[in-house]
Amino acid sequence: MTYQDFKQSHAARLMRRGFLKFLEYALLIGLSYYILSPLLLKIATSFMPETDLLDSLVVYIPTHFTLWNYKRAAEFLSYWESLRNTFLISLVAGLIQMMVCSFVGYGLAKFKFKGRGIVMAVVLFSIITPPLTYQPSMYLKFRYFDVFGIIEATTGSTLNLLDSFWPLLILSVTGFAFKNGLYIFMMMQFFRGFPEELEEAAYVDGYGVFRTFFRIILPNSIPMLITVFTFAFAWQWTDTFYTSMFFSRIKTLSNMLLRGFEGMNVEGHTMALAAGQPLTIALGGTYSLMVIIPLIVIYIFTQKFLTQGIERSGIVG
Amino acid sequence: MSKEKKKKSVSLSKKKARLGWVFVSPFVIGFFLFYLVVIIESIEYSFMEVKSLPEGGFVTRFVGWSNYEYMTRTLPTFMSDMWGTVSTMLYSLPMLLLFALFVAVILNQKLRGRALFRAIFFVPVILSTGIIAKSDAANNLVTAFATMNTGEMTTVAEEATSAFSVDGLMYYIEDMFTFAPWLLDFIETAASNVYAVISQAGVQILIFLAGLQSISPSLYEAAKMEGCSSWESFWKITLPMISPMILVNIIYSIVDCFTRYDNTVMNTIQQYITLTDYGYASAAAWIYFCVIAVLVLIIFGIASRLVFYQGKER
Predict the structure, then answer these.
(1) What is residue B165's DSSP assignment?
(2) Which residue from A207, B37, B236, B300 could staple onto A202, CB 3.0 to 4.6 Å apart?
């Protein structure tokens, strides 16, 4: 091959690579538009005053830009208090679920013991059964909480754990909270792909099982752990199933959004807002944006953490 | 000497078995503490007629299989909704997985604005579950406008857009495809599924992404040194290494198909719960459970042969 040939083939390769990159970006940008399109109208209407909402000539660009929707929505459904509560609950629940699920997943993936098959079957069982099935029983269980009748025997009555953080904490610690079966399964599948030499080497070095788990295994599974944490956090953030079941007085973002803006009194209106009115809907859309945006910001931060994680690890393989 | 060694190894494996129980103990405790009771209660309800009293509380009466019979025989929509969801799921599952893996591979590359794209692909994860989906379904701005604007404005707007309206377009297309209506049907379902696939794939993309990021770059480097093209290293490295996560995604997608907010099967169950008709609700839920369990078992049977676990091989 002459130098000329080499140069030509090199140029052709560069062209091809450039074309592929172009296709990649075109695809990603198109898909991004597709994903974001339902949000665009919401974002647009969140800046519109009521006159614009009623004007059918105004679709995307507000004629009188205003932050009124944000202010009133935050006021009416006590945004900041709910945000603080939701953040706290999601963070604690996410961290606990991440730890517990990786713990259980590791036990199922790497230890052979009698009854392992049964435990695995129960994990799958808990993934498949819809939470709807046991909603009433679960509610009653935490309304009259008892550990095998011990509490009633000692104090004379059962505990009412509703409207406290205990039900979620108990569910998270035992790996039965929202979609925890999935996280256990994810971690289990991930650990099953771990080379056994890693642990054997650690044992030879005199590490115990727990020290190996915390010092060797966990640092090498950061991408998976972060993904589990992200799911747990985000789904706790938007969850209404457990929050509406357990919290009636504790304000969370999802509960507030579920309540909606019906019955809100607005200056200039003789009647309170009703369901289905444009302003009610625009306020609801604004509030749901206010629920989503913190999550996305937090996700971008964890992403940074994630990429750092990979560069550190990479023993798997 | 050998006897002593054997004894030691037995105790070691026993010790490991005990440690295994320690690791899974939180889950086992939770199972016995409330999950088992709750599940048994739900099964009991499915064989009972549950009536709520006006002053609070419930009356239950054992009715045998009649709740199940009502669901499968009397109620015309439930089973057909069930099979409908199963067939849609089987149809969209391969598409969903391929799409998720494809996007995950692209997002795992070095790209300008990768963090931004990842954040965008995270949006469906938030939008599709929990409160946001619910509130969106209730607060549809478009339908609100349709009911609000009953004056002259609507007619003007309709005239302005009628040339491009979906109905008009469908009319022209149907006119063009009179020779093969099944082809039109097929293309139409595939095209109308595209958005569903994209909005459902968020979780799967993230799971694949986490799997991809756990593959050591040194494997790819070694393959490149041996002269593998990137196409070959996808098939020989990426796919086997990611296969445990494919199984996770299959299970997740199956369950997700049914538990989405717009699924009719789940909505039927929800309706009965709102009516405090726990007997019917539980029976419906257990029928659903049996269908899914069979599907999952079949897939597990197939997948356990195909999935590659790095730890096991050596």
Answers:
(1) -
(2) A207
